[in-house]
Design goal:
The complex is a heterotetramer, with two copies of chain A (242 residues) and two copies of chain B (132 residues).
Chain A: H1 4-12, E1 16-23, H2 31-44, E2 49-53, H3 61-65, E3 73-74, E4 78-79, E5 81-83, E6 86-90, H4 92-95, H5 104-117, E7 123-129, H6 136-144, E8 148-154, H7 158-173, E9 178-186, H8 192-199, E10 204-209, H9 221-225, H10 228-240
Parallel strand pairs in A: 1-7, 1-8, 2-6, 2-7, 8-9, 9-10
Antiparallel strand pairs in A: 3-4, 5-6
Chain B: H1 3-20, E1 25-34, H2 41-51, E2 60-66, E3 69-72, E4 78-80, H3 88-96, H4 101-104, E5 115-119, E6 123-131
Parallel strand pairs in B: 1-2
Antiparallel strand pairs in B: 1-6, 3-4, 3-5
Classes of the chains: A alpha/beta (242), B alpha+beta (132).
The structure holds adenosine-5'-diphosphate (ADP) (2 copies), magnesium ion (MG) (4 copies), nickel (II) ion (2 copies) and zinc ion (2 copies).
One adenosine-5'-diphosphate sits between chains A (24, 27-33, 60, 184-185, 208, 210-211, 214-215, 229) and C (27-28, 157, 159-160).
Chain lengths: 242, 132, 242, 132
């Protein structure tokens, strides 16, 4: 007759002001790094922030932020863990070191389950770290999360932007709110991405340079916020989310 | 104890359907609970009894447990899930997110994690009976 | 009663000696660049080679190799196009500029369809460019293609290797043949990936440096084979596929 | 003309099933063909008649066309596919890979490409009748 989980999702997100899906279509463009650092930096600027790692077959945010030994609590549902002041949920607490091969239908089901049982408290931002591809997770986010907004990440590469362009077209067509596009891992000057993004009437949010030091900061939140990467991202974040 | 969250979802979903069907009072709500997720029936029942009000005040919630049947996509083998074969942590993971079964359960015949959950996953609203 | 397509897949690959899935779990590690360049370089060394772009929601190989205006022919099935001497099939011929949002079940169905109708001729190698994630495409390749072998790509990054490790564990457990692991986009010395790969008893095939010029060569097969990237990949290929 | 490849797949699949069931001669093979893919029935029939031999020599291949029904996952709208609304290139793409429908067809009510193909996709072996 009915899957009771679906109807409750809106209620679970009731106290969250903005839900931001950090997405791309393309893999390896820095979605996880941007989602994690954005959550951290907004939280340090006194916003209340949640981070939900939705890349179930390859979760990364716990590595970037060095989140270990914290677990959601069970209390009439799942209460997100607290990590560096961020409310945090990742499937890593349940899949651990094991490979978790999930077909699209499983991704969809796991996503609905976690949304249905997680009690997000009052938050200014819930940041979602999305998997690559334009598939179940992206489609379900559009389908189930009424207040979703997409923050799209590209690199300067043609290969990345080709997919990003398709994702943008889809979001525009479906009138899904778009925060805009961040161009990450910039190594030399070029207007390729900016020009094409603006031609689609989508906000171009700014560039982040390739930062050879960022990886050394993984696992250490204090070091991470002090990287060139984090500083540029913070500039963008404060402009975009004043 | 996330049974409480599931109970809320059931009541909320049942309310919507009752409204759609123009019910003034709900007499019975039938629910199916899959064994894979090992929902604690007692707690679910308690949560439902605490949460029911308004048109659900006198409703009976009937809960049926459904065996979890899995079918391997590689060799076709079909089997019934038994929690006794799982350690506590894996069972807990599956309790929260049944899909993590693909990390902990393998086809007993060929060892593949590429199986389908034919039935017995999660919580399902089966039917609602009431007075218009 | 039965889906007639599945049983014919083996027959369609009957004349193909080796089927190599270039895979990773992680996105953006260079799967598409390696798959494309590997196909090109093996073909130039007089091997008969096919390239099948299986990243349906973000196909890239046609951009890397500059494949335009060639199309599979219809002749009692689909006859792969000929591009730079490579037998080539990509969904781009059918999806074009449009976004192709596919759920996992659709990816699976499209894959089965293309396998069932494509007549690969006698080939030494059929290279498959895989999507990221450990999901439908990976699982179906294992399920339907008896002679599949995985060539796994990582970068030096912890984030990439974390997912690669999970994919390797899965393949080892399922006894799927593994050609080995290539470490791509190397920027500085480190033994992190090599050590961990060898600890799993998986062949470490070699390193490919980050090549800032490779992107300029996209679309031009002659320029591409002359990049530092292609030369290092060719060294590895000749060693691994003598 | 990739109908030929589908015909081969049908014969090959039917053979396997006939062997499993111990059939010495096949009398009838029922096939369903979905409209979404716009398989040319004439060509499929011709290919089947050219390819049939051995235990299939006297078999009749009955082909039933199934209307393609699509259902939107966003708004729930259900509709029947009509190829008249497609341009030639899109129709050709869907002919080869029905899933490319998600690039060319949108829900007529809400515009979403996130729809399910309920039925009428591809070629399906329905039943085999024969003599043991
Ligand atoms: N601005 C940057 N400078 C340097 N390295 C970066 C930058 N952004 C991302 N990376 C690196 O690129 C790789 C991919 O980033 P990741 O966040 O995992 O991408 P995605 O989530 O899109 O797959 C990681 O190794 C990450 O450390
Ligand atoms: N060795 C390399 N040197 C420089 N750039 C590379 C190298 N390998 C890959 N790239 C670039 O990295 C990005 C991701 O590569 P791609 O082949 O699309 O990865 P995937 O298919 O794994 O997503 C592309 O922009 C590509 O040009
Ligand atoms: Mg990521
Ligand atoms: Mg499953
Ligand atoms: Mg790729
Ligand atoms: Mg579909
Ligand atoms: Ni619980
Ligand atoms: Ni045809
Ligand atoms: Zn099995
Ligand atoms: Zn619709």
């Amino acid at each position: 007759m009915a899957d009771p989980r679906i109807g409750i999702i809106d209620k679970r997100l009731e106290k969250v002001k903005r839900v931001i899906a950090v997405s791309s279509g393309k893999g390896g463009v820095g979605k996880s790094l941007i989602a994690s650092t954005l959550a951290l930096t907004l939280s340090q600027k006194n916003r209340s922030v949640g981070l939900f790692d939705v890349d179930f077959t390859s979760p990364s945010t716990h590595i970037i932020l060095g989140i270990q030994n914290v677990k959601p609590k069970e209390e009439k549902g799942l209460i997100p863990a607290d990590a560096h002041g961020i409310k945090y949920v990742s499937i890593i607490n349940y899949s651990g070191e094991e490979a978790l091969p999930l077909r699209g239908a499983d991704v969809s089901n796991a996503l609905i389950e976690l949304f249905a049982i997680t009690r997000w408290e009052t938050l200014d931002f819930l940041i979602m770290d999305m998997p690559p591809g334009i598939s179940d997770a992206t489609l379900d986010m559009i389908r189930f999360v009424k207040k979703i907004e997409f923050l799209v990440v590209s690199t300067p590469s043609q290969l990345a932007f080709e997919t990003v362009k398709k994702l943008l077209k889809l979001l525009l067509e479906l009138k899904v709110p778009l925060v805009g596009v961040v161009e990450n891992m910039k190594m030399k000057e070029s207007n390729f991405v900016k020009t094409h993004v603006e031609a689609l009437d989508v906000p171009f949010l700014g560039e982040i340079p390739f930062d050879p030091k960022v990886e050394e900061a993984f696992g250490n939140a204090n070091a991470l916020v002090n990287t060139v990467f984090a500083k540029r991202l913070t500039d963008i974040a404060l402009k975009v989310f004043p | 104890m996330h049974e409480w969250a599931l109970a809320e979802a059931i009541i909320s979903s049942a309310s919507k359907i009752a409204t759609q069907e123009g019910l003034k009072e709900v007499i019975e709500v039938k629910i199916k609970v899959g064994e894979l997720q090992q929902v604690e029936i007692d707690i679910l029942e308690f949560a439902l009894s605490e949460l029911k009000k308004d048109i659900f005040k006198n409703a009976i919630f009937t809960i049926e447990t459904v065996k979890a049947e899995l079918k391997c996509r590689i060799c076709g083998h079909q089997w019934v899930f038994s929690k006794d074969k799982l350690d506590v942590d894996s069972a807990e993971a599956i309790h929260f997110v049944p899909e993590t079964a693909h990390a902990y359960i393998k086809c007993p015949r060929c060892g593949s994690p590429d199986f389908e959950i034919l039935r017995g996953r999660g919580v399902w609203l089966e039917s609602i009976r009431g007075v218009k």
